[in-house]
Amino acid sequence: MEPNEAITDPTSNAESMLYAANITGDNRFTQALERNIDFLLFNAPKNSDGIIYHWPGKKIVMVDSYYMAPPALALTGHFEEAVKQVEGFRKLLWSDEDKLFSHMWNDEKMDYFILFLMILILLLILILLRRLLMLFLGE
Q: Phi, psi (5° rounding) for residue 60?
């Protein structure tokens, strides 16, 4: 895999690879697919729920991965992992409001948003504590 290559893109041809292996008898096709699937299972960067990120070094999940990784995983017998990826992609990318899938989900932006919310909540707690102290101390 090239350093800037999308992680799930090489799995889009999984069925073709198996077909080529069966037609030609050349096990290089099967070996290449097995290496790719092993990478997805054991080395691909994933979020805390185990959902595969789309790009190396970026915490981004993209809808493109939906039609690439799960079918390849299922085709090679990793049914539970395929279902896990489908459910994870849906959880991150589906918009109930729009009834559409988003193109991407960025965990890094969400991390900053959560940090912002935590700081905001902390500030509100401090303001509330200050007011309570002022009430009890009679200021």
A: -125, 130
Q: How many CA atoms lie within 13 A of 124 on its CB side?
A: 6
Provide the token pair at 83. 């279902």
Amino acid code (one letter) for 51: I
Distance CA 81, CA 41 (A): 8
pLDDT interval class at 74 (50, 70, 90): very high
CA distance 128 to 126: 5
The 10s digit of each residue's pLDDT in 14-34 is 999 999 999 999 999 999 999
CA dist list (Å): 108 to 8, 11, 20, 44, 88:
19, 25, 39, 17, 17
- Determine how β-strand 94-95 pairs with β-strand 60-62: unpaired
How far, in Å, CA of 93 to CA of 109, rounded? 14
Cα–Cα separations (whole angstroms), residue 88 to 35, 70, 85, 101, 105 = 23, 11, 5, 12, 11
